[in-house]
Amino acid sequence: MPRGRRVNIGRRTRHASQQQAYSQNLSEERQNIIRENARLRQRVSTRRSLASYNRLAFQYDPTANYSDDENLDIGPMTTICRYCNALKFKRETAGLCCASGKVKLDPLLTPPQPLQPLFDGSDPDSSYFLQHILEYNNCFRMTSFGANIIREGGFMPTCKIQGQIYHLHGSMVPTPDEPHQFLQIYFISSMVDQLNVRCNIQGTQQLKRRIIEQLQAFFHANNDVVNMFKTALERMPSDTHKFVIRADCTPTGEHVRRFNAPTVNDVAAIIVGDPTKSRDIVVQRRSNIMHRVNETHRLYDALQYPIIYWQGQDGYEITLKMVDPITGTIFTH
């Protein structure tokens, strides 16, 4: 083979190698561009999908499985509010729980016996009580829990609810041939009969009778809401009378649970007719109609969770005055 041809072969080989290296570098650049464009498209798509979640509650599909969507994974409650010590999710706003210290509720008091030993572990049945505290609470709650609960087959570690939860209350005395439920159980004359009814509530058969009996006597002696209802029932002359708990009225200089004569009272009154506001709790002596408790009523939580609000304390209500978190002074505007 001629010498020149060998030289051309070497030149072509070097050129091919250079072209291959250039193509490889160009391919890597193109791949980087492609990957970057893919990331941008994903970012835009994520923005669009997150924007579509703003009104997802109005388009909720109970048949869809949202648990696999990473955009809906809000993580554990690891953030602690520095003002009220509330546990919050990472992305919750700072002022969501207490308006950054501007909303202050009275602290929950340490309960006396027999409730405190059940909480702190000094009672031999404390562990069992804490494990079944929801069932024990259900024995004494005064309102029912309502919601559209989604039930699925197999084990469900969480409770799925569609729409808004709500609390309902009935009359103080059941209609003839109807069993006592919720608030009505407190007005059974015999304490033994009360205990038997509580022990037979659905889902509470595994609870210990001794604990239920102790808690029953405890709430009758210490819960101001229970005693207020009992006093009202004694003063209601007929089934047409209604007992009204005002949503946002507290007598000046008086305890919020004070119950005066049924003629004039800013907190609770016995009336005939319907001169009430939409947020008030209106309880009739005897009726088969259930009424919804407004979620902004000050007794909304106390009626549903008596073990936590063992005194029947007021909770949040919309007329609560804000305070300066530093000076403690009340905002006038």
Automatic annotation (TrEMBL):
Q: Where is the composition biased (Basic residues)?
A: 1-15
Look up and give the organism this protein is from.
Parnassius mnemosyne (clouded apollo)
Q: Where is the composition biased (Polar residues)?
A: 16-26
Q: What is the lineage of its organism?
A: Eukaryota, Metazoa, Ecdysozoa, Arthropoda, Hexapoda
Question: Region Disordered: what ranges?
Answer: 1-26
- This chain's protein is named Helitron helicase-like domain-containing protein
